Amino acid sequence: MKAAIFHAPHQPLTVEELDVDQPRKGEALVRTVASGICHSDLHYIEGETTIGAPAVLGHEGAGIVEAVGPGVTYVRPGDRVIVCISSFCGACVRCLTGHPHLCEQRPRRSDDSPPRLTWRGNAVAQMGNLATYADRMLVHERNLYKVTHNVPLETAVLISCGVMTGVGAVLNTARIEVGSTVAVIGVGGVGLSAVQGARIGGARQIIAVDLHQHKLRQASELGATHTVNAAERDPVHAIRSLSDGGVDYSFEAIGLQTTMEQAFNCLRPGGLATVMGVPGPGVKLALEGRYFLSERKIQGCRMGSNRFRVDFPKLLDYYQQGLLRLDEMVSRRLSLDQINEGFRAMRAGEVARQVILYV
Ligand SMILES: [Zn+2]
Ligand SMILES: [Zn+2]
Question: Which one from 35, 40, 86, 243 is the annotated catalytic residue?
Answer without folding.
Answer: 40
